[in-house]
Amino acid sequence: MSALIDTPNLADHDGFYAELLAAHRCLDEKRSQALNAQLIMILANHIGDRRVLAEALALALRDIG
Amino acid sequence: MPHTRRPFPFMRPPGLDLPENRHGVLIVGAGPVGLAMALELANHDVSSIVLDDNNVVSAGSRAICWSKRSLEILDRIGVGERCLRKGVTWKVGRTYCRDEEVFSFDLLPEDGHKMPAFVNLQQYYVEEYLIEAARENPLVEMRFRNRVSGVVQSRDCVRAEIETPEGNYRLEADYLIACDGARSSIRESMGLDFAGELFEERFLIADVELKTEMPSERRFWFEPTFHSGQSALLHKQPDNIYRIDLQLGWGANPRRESRPENVIPRIERVVGHSDFRLDWVSVYTFQCRRLRDFVHGRVIFAGDSAHIVSPFGARGGNSGLQDVDALGWRLAAVLRSRSPRNILEDFDAERTFAADENLLNSSRATKFMTPTDGIERLLRDQVLALAAKAPFARAWVNSGRLSVPCVYPSEGADDGTMPALSRPGSVAPDAPVENGWLLNRLGGRMVVLALGCEMPRVDGANVFAPRVTDMLRHRYLGIATSAVYLIRPDQVIAARWPYPDPASVEKTISRLWRLGK
Ligand SMILES: Cc1cc2nc3c(=O)[nH]c(=O)nc-3n(C[C@H](O)[C@H](O)[C@H](O)COP(=O)(O)OP(=O)(O)OC[C@H]3O[C@@H](n4cnc5c(N)ncnc54)[C@H](O)[C@@H]3O)c2cc1C
Predict the structure, then answer these.
(1) CB–CB of A41 and B396 under 8 A?
(2) What is the mean pLDDT of residues B82-89?
(3) φ and ψ at B134, to 5 degrees?
């Protein structure tokens, strides 16, 4: 059974997407990468479930890795 | 006063003049592992000969952090209290990022253990105490300046070729334990693959005698201003000796970096003054490797000859002593015809499992400390940046996860209501009992620990039933009202039951000795 929610779960996703773009807007490549890296770790800690994180990684890697 | 190394005498071995009778066990290497091995076997009434190519203890501090488990093992072979008295007990570690403290830990904040979480003591002291104990032990024979130059084994015997200052001879034995260190020539001559990873990094390691006192803490810095862009570690040892490790980068030239004129200015920047004396300097490269199998017929590998790790986490010397712990009682059982040889497979399975855990932890720490350029570096730096603003990230900062004994996979009976820390496969937690300590009472025998119940006699183990104190309850009972623990000679818990069940206990004992069905 899957632990990761990969169906709609975030109410204002358009709003979040815009917020994410806005956060990156004034950053150069290096800072953008730093921001993403920190965000991943903050969210990972918040999720607090190794199984969810492993499934999220696998999903992201599919078609990329 | 810093330590002086006195040479041990060379004594002409009888084998130079007449062939010697076949021996039980030859131990090659008088490092901490070989010496502890001889004393542990002696505890089980097995005699051995320790052969070492050298006649002095280790140059430089080398392994300095001895874990609680190592101290307990050293205690069982008679030198633990001495190490504790001489060593610097510490339990606080601080990690700094740039010059800010981001993370600190306090090991073993709990009372009721004979041994502390860690003691810092130079390897040469530990070896010296072990050699003194070995020389006093009638079951151990030390042969200094006896270099093993070749090993041949047949189905029923192993033969070692030995070189001494007065000529060459050979010895035959039932078993040979290769404790000949990271560069093991025995491993090499047997053509065994020592697979793993080399990290492209160099650290300068220095022992420095300081006049000023610094606190008994482990301090680790990422990118401190005094050592730009690199990592540094400071550790206190006895005799006002401080151990300083400085990351140099892969491009560094080890010979040039070890010269005092280059080392001294670096140390001055760490300690902030020049009131010190340099005692020992070395340049270290990390490797994480292990043999696939530790038992090869009649040749058994233990310590650095079997596995090497990077030093952050103190898993080198400590894991070697745990090899001794897992091997001694089993090899003694084979030699005394109590167990079949395949009991050695249990040693192999447990210690290769432990080696993997140590390798995993130390290669993770090494990657964190010395990330490769690109994404590894980015992620590492962002953990450090986060640590300054979010409490969770402080624990992610990895300057080495310090050695704790692993929990061996176990098929022993278990009871889920009892505490997790004493589940089968774990080292029995110490506790005060009857004016002494539980681990001292267990010693090196098979013991049934009965708490809160009457345990009948069983074949093959002594029953120990102390009064149940709060600490025993907390560590062994939890919410259970009674418990029966079967504890192996290496003080590892084999199985536990909520009530006395002599038949199951006896069955488990037979299985541990690999007897019958
Ligand atoms: C510079 C340095 C720094 C270190 N720092 C740390 C640290 O901070 N923390 C830590 O946990 N570990 C550290 N280590 C590792 C630690 O010293 C080892 O894990 C530990 O010494 C292993 O013990 P051993 O008995 O297996 O091997 P060793 O101590 O290496 O002993 C092997 C012995 O075998 C002898 N020998 C070798 N070949 C033969 C032969 N053919 N015939 C006879 N005798 C032979 C050698 O002379 C030696 O006495 C360090 C090592 C080095 C080199």
Answers:
(1) yes
(2) 97
(3) -65, -40
In tens digits, chain A (65 residues) has pLDDT values of 689 999 999 999 999 999 999 999 999 999 999 999 999 999 999 999 999 999 999 999 999 87
Interface residue A39 vs chain B (CB under 8 A): no
For residue B450, CA distances in Å to B344, B407, B419, B486, B499 come to: 29, 22, 15, 9, 9
Residue B35 Cα: closest atom of ligand 1: 25
User: What's the domain count of chain B?
Assistant: 2
Cβ of B317 less than 6 Å from ligand 1: yes
Chain B CB contacts of A41 under 8 Å are 382-383, 386, 393, 396
Q: Is B386 on the interface with A (CB under 8 A)?
A: yes
Q: Which of B44, B29, B25 is nearest to B298 (CA)?
A: B25
Report the complex ipTM.
Answer: 0.96
CA dihedral B127, B129, B134, B137 (to 10 degrees): -170
Is the same domain home to B307 and B427? no
Q: Which CATH number goes with the domain that contains B462? A: 3.40.30.120
Distance from residue B63's CA to the centre of ligand 1 (Å):
8
**Predicted confidence (pLDDT) at residue B229 exceeds the cutoff of 90:** no
Residues B44 and B180 in one domain: yes
Give the pLDDT confidence score for residue A1 in this predicted structure.
Answer: 64
Locate B164 and state its tokens: 């001494």
